[in-house]
Amino acid sequence: MRDNRAWFWNPRILSGGNGLIRSWLLRSLVLPWLVALVSVPAAAQCTAYVPTHKSNSVAVIDTSVDRVVAVIPVQIQPLAVAITPNGAFAYVSNSGWVFGSNSVSVIATASNTVVATIPVGRFPVGLAIAPNGAAAYVANFNSNSVSVIDTATNVVTATVTVGNGPWGAAITPDGSFAYVTNFNSSNVSVISTATNTVVATVTVGSGPVAAAITPNGAYAYVTNSSADTVSVINTATNTVVATVPVTSASYSSGPYAVAITPNGAFAYVANSAASTVSVISTANNSVVATIAVGTIPHGVAITPDGAFAYVTNEYSSTVSVIATSSNTVVDTVEAAAVAPEGIAITPQNGAVTCR
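Predicted structure:
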């Protein structure tokens, strides 16, 4: 759209009149404009951090305009990201693949710079941060372990042996337990964060990838990529109480990532093989919507206000923005570097909403 500000303030519109008319016009035009400015709420937006696997970087998206506003170099082939509860730091797992980064980069969100690099186990993938921000739990796929990072010192203070091929991690809202998906052993290890020991092992579907826990802490939703299902674990008993099929028109859906809305009503599941997102009602554990997104979606995050789901599409190198009110794609963020994987969203200071 053409910028009309220069035309609006062009002195010609005030020429030919006397000073009184000019003064009145300026007051009538400028005062409402100033009132409107001071009435605008504090920055109503959020920031999304997206590890871009093939670019060895993290793309930073301003959700108010859905554009990449910064690119932060990290180590080799980052996969997942988690943000501290105060929004000050983003922790990024650098898988390294054959190159072996085997590290976690710590990004200061105020400056979007890497302030620490932490050695962890081999092929780190998923990670989660405790609700009090004191520790980060990192799943090391090739080490069959979880590294526990003290976020105050950014050093590993414990290493927990889990199942075979740990991939994803989620922590209960009260911070008591970490749920770690073991891809190769098709189960979930439950770690007590007080002792950093495994206190339960829950059998789920084949090839579990990601986990998300409801805001009330009652249930963990686990994506089973090889079974085309989502397992629902009752965290009080650590038993599977429901199995939700997420099949689609394709031969295989490959459920990969999952995120739950802040009100706990819905789980959004990114189906990697089908290039769709399944929306599960947590009230009856049934799929209530299926949304086409980009190719090979690998990450999903919900804005803190619950209004939007952001989905990273690895092969499309895009991010799909879904309005949760209508379950339709309302925007697509282009040029999110190459092969975006995980995603995490944090509100900016003073944010009321994210759009």
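Summary: The chain has a mean pLDDT of 87.
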